[in-house]
Specification:
Distance between the termini: 45 Å
Strand content: 25-35%
Radius of gyration: 23 Å
Structural class: alpha/beta
Bound molecules: ligand 9MR
Strand order of the largest sheet: 2-3-4-5-6-7-9-10
Number of strands: 21
Largest sheet: 8 strands, parallel, barrel
Oligomer: single chain
């Protein structure tokens, strides 16, 4: 069994937390046994492998056979775009999108939503709008669609392709951009309010080369959003490659630098024109780059067979026109199977004591997490389940777990170290931003069955240091 140093230290840390709190997520590394499909092999390292799906092809048995066998994430290729979901202002149609979402979920696949706000594929009514009327219409669209799909979407491409190509690093001129530079953050805020459980992504192409002005501009926007508390959880790199736009040598650097801002990175529309060994090697490089970045959480290819592709002439996908696996498929599967495996186990124990306080310090992390658990009559515990620290701030996810009885509501009290200020939080009602801060449940996550759990999160400036939590329940 091969254990990486990082994995060992993480496992040791979390094991110590289990002892302290009775409730923790345990991450362990084990040997990868070769899986035989893309989704299963990606899942071994906690990632997903997805594809774009065209609703019109769901009657094609070869297509559906490959879809159901190989993939565990789906993006609607066109059916969730603005022209498809709101063809006339205020009249929303979800029939075609639902067909894809229902198929995916029925097969146990998750769904990436694509896309809520975009300069392209706008319905005619929107194309002719401007100013505050357009801003309002855009926000209404984001709110309506994200609300309709609330709870069904793993991640939304909230805003798509908002930056210009070339060397300027400027925003793309569009009717949406002309409503004011803050249109992107307004869209993200509306999406968070509508579906607090979905990850919110900014998605773009030609953002793969770290040195490109467009990449730098998107990076600065995400950095600014994180600093100001604009809700953003992920960056999507479309990653459409061909000879004019090859896989850059610094691709992994780009993924890592975005991840270092405290967001997930997702490869959202991967296709690589070519054939044979050269194409297979390029796919392998992309997959290995993602696997090398902890927060690169998954890869989606933009179609199944070459003949399904928006640029089929370039044979850019993993299956040929007949649905046979190409060399590129094999190289992707082998790369995924070579990744260290991460398994996630949730361990919950219940104590009858009223208060348990334990402090854990490790030499392998700069963060010391102190967790205290109060078991009230029904009982709950709270623990930090994820923490991403960057130079000037961090994002923490807190898991609240009910004890041996169901709870009807909870509140988690968190003592922040000096100098830490919360700038944004989600999935809870918060009072305070420094010192001792209280997070109460919101309407949709207060009720937990015995042993059940929910998560909320916040973003703060400063260094997490010791985070001390107390949970009370009703
Ligand atoms: O693959 C999509 C194609 O069927 C549509 O005609 C096209 C219209 O804009 O959009 C394609 O998907 C695009 C995606 O939505 C955004 N990134 C670029 C993709 C390829 O053009």
């Amino acid at each position: 069994m091969k254990l990486t140093a990082r994995s060992v230290s993480r496992a040791a840390l979390v094991t110590a937390l289990v002892a302290a709190t009775g409730s923790a997520v345990v991450l362990t590394a084990t040997t990868a046994s070769a899986a035989s499909t893309l989704g299963a092999s990606a899942a071994q390292s906690g990632r997903y492998f997805g594809t774009a799906v065209a609703g019109g092809r769901l009657g094609d048995s070869t297509y559906v056979g490959i879809l159901n066998r190989e993939f565990n994430m789906v993006t609607a290729e066109n059916e969730m775009k603005i022209d498809a979901t709101e063809p006339q202002q205020g009249r929303f149609t979800y029939t075609n999108a639902d067909r894809i979402v229902n198929h995916a979920r029925g097969q146990g696949m998750r769904v990436r939503g694509h896309t809520l706000a975009w300069h392209s594929q706008q319905p005619a009514w929107m194309q002719s709008m401007s100013g505050s009327a357009l801003r309002q219409a855009m926000l209404n669209h984001v709110t309506q669609v994200a609300t309709y799909y609330r709870g069904k979407i793993y991640a939304w491409d909230v805003v798509n392709e908002a930056f210009a190509d070339g060397s300027t690093g400027a925003r793309r001129d569009s009717n949406l951009q002309r409503t004011g530079n803050d249109w992107i953050e307004a869209a993200f805020r509306a999406a968070r309010a509508a579906d607090p459980g979905a990850k919110l992504c900014y998605n773009d192409y030609n953002t793969d080369d770290w040195t490109h002005a467009k990449t730098q501009a998107v990076y600065r926007m995400v950095q600014d959003f994180k600093q100001r508390g604009v809700p953003i959880d992920c960056v999507g790199l479309q990653s459409h490659f061909n000879s004019q736009s090859p896989v850059p040598s610094n691709y992994q650097t780009t993924l890592q630098n975005f991840a270092n801002l405290g967001v997930d990175v997702q490869i959202t529309e991967l296709d690589i024109e070519g054939s044979g060994t050269a194409q297979a090697q390029n796919y392998e490089r992309v997959v290995k780059a993602c696997l090398a970045v902890t927060r690169c959480t998954g890869i989606t290819v933009w179609g199944i067979r070459d003949s399904d592709s928006w640029r089929s002439y370039g044979t850019p996908l993993l299956f040929d026109n007949n649905g046979n696996k190409k060399a590129a498929y094999t190289s992707v599967l082998n790369a995924l199977n070579a990744a260290p495996t991460t398994s996630t186990t949730t361990t919950t124990t219940t104590t009858s004591s009223t208060t348990t306080t334990t402090s854990t310090t490790t030499t392998t992390t700069s963060t010391t997490t102190t967790t205290s658990t109060t078991q009230g009559p029904a009982g709950c515990s709270a623990s930090v389940s994820a923490l991403d620290q960057w130079s000037s701030g961090f994002v923490a996810t807190i898991k609240v777990t009910a004890g041996s009885a169901a709870v009807n509501g909870w509140s988690a009290s968190l003592a922040l170290p000096p100098g830490v200020t919360i700038v944004n939080s989600w999935n809870s009602e918060r009072s305070g931003s420094t010192g001792t801060v209280t997070f109460g449940n919101v309407a949709y996550n207060g009720g937990l069955p015995a042993g059940g759990s929910t998560e909320f999160g916040f973003q703060a400036n400063g260094t997490a240091g010791a985070l001390s939590l107390t949970c009370t329940s009703r």
